[in-house]
Write a structure and sequence with these properties.
Helix 2 (26-35) packs antiparallel against helix 3 (41-56). This protein is 60% helix and 2% strand. It is built from twelve helices and two strands; from the N terminus they run H-E-H-H-E-H-H-H-H-H-H-H-H-H. The model has no long low-confidence stretch (mean pLDDT 94). It folds into two domains: 3-19 and 177-226; 22-169. A two-stranded antiparallel sheet has the order 1-2. It is an all-alpha fold.
Length: 227
C-alpha cells in the first residue's frame, strides 16, 4: 500500500465536509494568513480579525462562497491606508490589540508590519477584492511575479503562510499543512513528512477521496484540534 492509500484509509475517521463560510474581505484574509502562523487560531487569530472588523465597521465579515461578493466589500487599499495612517505599531497595539512578531525574537518585525506589506504588494498588483484575487490565481505567469514579491516579506518561512493566503482568498486546491496536520501524517505514515511531501500527499489523497485538498487538510486539522 502506498502512502496516499494509507492516508485515504486513515481519512475514513475524519469528518470531511464542504467549505463553510469564509472571510468576505481581502483584508481579513491577509490578517488571518499572517497572524495565524505560530499562534493559537481561536484564542488569538480570530479575535484579531474581528477587532479589525469592529474598528473598520465592516459588514458581513463572513459569507458562503455562493453569496460572494458581499455588498460593501472593503477594497484592500483601504486597509493599507488605515495601517499607513496609524503606523503598524499603533495599529497593532490599539486596533488589533495583537503585538505578535513574525518570529520569536523581540527584534523581529511585527506581524502588523507583515500584514501591511502583504496588502501593499497585492494592491500594487491590482488586487483589491476577492474576485480580483481569484483572477490572479488563474493567471500563473502573473501569479509567479506576485508570489516572488510576497515571499520577501518577513516571516515567509517555508511558504505555508503564502499558500494559506491563497486558500483563504478562495483557492481550495491550495493547502497549508501546519504542525498539527504534519503530526497526523507522521502518525499515519510512521515517518517524518516534509511540507512539500505533505502538500503532494494530501492533494493526491484528496483526488482519490473526490474532495478538495482544502477539505481534507481542514478535516485533519479539526481532528487534531479536537483530539
Amino acid at each position: 500500500m502506498d502512502d496516499a492509500s494509507r492516508i485515504v484509509d486513515a481519512a475514513g475517521h475524519l469528518a470531511i465536509k464542504p467549505r463553510g463560510p469564509r472571510w468576505a474581505h481581502a483584508a481579513l484574509c491577509v490578517l488571518d494568513a499572517v497572524f495565524s502562523i505560530n499562534a493559537h487560531y481561536e484564542r488569538h487569530t480570530v479575535p484579531t480579525c474581528y477587532r479589525y472588523v469592529t474598528w473598520a465597521g465592516l459588514s458581513a465579515p463572513l459569507a458562503d462562497s455562493a453569496h460572494l461578493p458581499v455588498v460593501g466589500e472593503q477594497p484592500l487599499g483601504d486597509f493599507v491606508t488605515h495601517i499607513q495612517i496609524q503606523g503598524e505599531v499603533t495599529f497593532s497595539a490599539q486596533v488589533l490589540k495583537n503585538n505578535q512578531r513574525t518570529w520569536a525574537k523581540r527584534s523581529a518585525p511585527l506581524k502588523g508590519e507583515a500584514a501591511r506589506r502583504y496588502a501593499e504588494i497585492l494592491v500594487a498588483h491590482g488586487i483589491e477584492t476577492l474576485a480580483e484575487a481569484n483572477v490572479l490565481l488563474a493567471d500563473l505567469d502573473r501569479l509567479k511575479v506576485v508570489e516572488q514579491a510576497l515571499a520577501s516579506v518577513a516571516g515567509h518561512g517555508s511558504g505555508a503562510r503564502l499558500a494559506y493566503l491563497w486558500m483563504l482568498l478562495g483557492d481550495d486546491s491550495r493547502i497549508k499543512p501546519d504542525r498539527m496536520v504534519l503530526r497526523w501524517l507522521q502518525a499515519v505514515l510512521h515517518r517524518a513528512v516534509t511540507m512539500p511531501d505533505a502538500i503532494r500527499l494530501i492533494t493526491e489523497a484528496a483526488a482519490r477521496l473526490a474532495c478538495a485538498p482544502w477539505e481534507l487538510d481542514h478535516a485533519i486539522w479539526e481532528h487534531q484540534r479536537n483530539s
